[in-house]
Amino acid sequence: MIIQCKSLAKEIREKAKREARGEKLMLHNIVVGEDESSLVYAKSNLKLLRKMGFDGVIHHLKYATEKQVLELIENLNSDPNVHGIMVNFPLPRNIDAMKVREAISPVKDVDGISPVNYGKLLLGKEVLTPNTPRAVIRILENVTELRGKDVLIINRTPVVGKPLSLMLLNRDATPTITHSKTRNLEEKTKNADIVVVAVGRPGFLKAHMVHDDAIVIDVGINVVDGKIVGDADFEAIERKAKITPVPGGVGTVTNACLIENLVKAAKLQGVIP
Ligand code: NAP
């Protein structure tokens, strides 16, 4: 009952590559501070870009003022050789995340984090949308019909839960968002057709919390004894419901979705037809 995601990721990447029509697109990735996982993520994206014939630059600013970050974004916005800009979160406390979101040109915003792209999503128009929730949607659409389904999301962040709920509404599903202050979570997960978990705690979602034949999308990424694991009790859930693996699940499709957005951004800029 494992939901295979690697072939879907490959499909998304290959379509993006075809649509790029040989153009060597450039993604600039900004990492501020010492967050090790952001740097690992940026490096793995760069590797994937190069493997696909694109390229990228990682701007690792160990110490930077807000002004320096905003100036860098401004320079990248006006550089025609830059097709996508990605800023890794969390940002250090001295930098106002909202100002950073506002600074990124909406047509280069490959992670869909600018207020303009968020606003469009809220109004039902998906232009450049955040990659992780879009990856969740792509996986779900590959295995089920979303219309009318009850989808329980355990996460309310702007990275996962909020945009995902909007994307689900756009597809006639019925999303419910839960978070750390939600009461009786188990009752809610048990009644859902689909459960999306993104808490950041290994083993958080137990088998008794989901009904037989449910679909579980595990967004979590945790390191336990040097191994990457998700948020769900994978072995127990896999025996009764459909579930995405970690690694090789949502993360793999998210990386492909980033490439897809880079190509989309290049189209918006008129670089490719
Ligand atoms: P986060 O900012 O820590 O958010 C965690 C969410 O879980 C919050 O909404 C929090 O509620 C909720 N939560 C925490 N404890 C809970 C509980 N006991 N019951 C119900 N809800 C609870 O993390 P994030 O950045 O959104 O990421 C979440 C996970 O997804 C992490 O493991 C991260 O590594 C992973 N992730 C994966 C990808 C991917 O592409 N695969 C991308 C991004 C993130 P409150 O809002 O009330 O605090």
Describe this structure in words.
There is one protein chain. By secondary structure, the chain is α/β, with parallel strands linked by helices. It has 2 domains: 23-105, 3-Layer(aba) Sandwich (Rossmann fold), CATH 3.40.50.10860; 131-248, 3-Layer(aba) Sandwich (Rossmann fold), CATH 3.40.50.720. The protein is 41% helix and 16% strand. It has 10 helices and 10 strands. It has helices at 6-19, 36-51, 66-78, 97-103, 115-122, 131-143, 161-170, 185-191, 234-238, 250-268, and strands at residues 26-32, 55-61, 84-87, 150-154, 174-178, 194-197, 215-218, 222-224, 227-229, 242-243. The strands form 3 sheets. Strands 5-4-6-7-10 form a 5-stranded parallel beta sheet, with helices on both faces. β1 (26-32), α2 and β2 form a beta-alpha-beta unit. α1 runs parallel beside α10, α6 crosses α7 and α6 (131-143) crosses α10 (250-268). The termini are far apart. The mean pLDDT is 97. The chain binds NADP nicotinamide-adenine-dinucleotide phosphate.
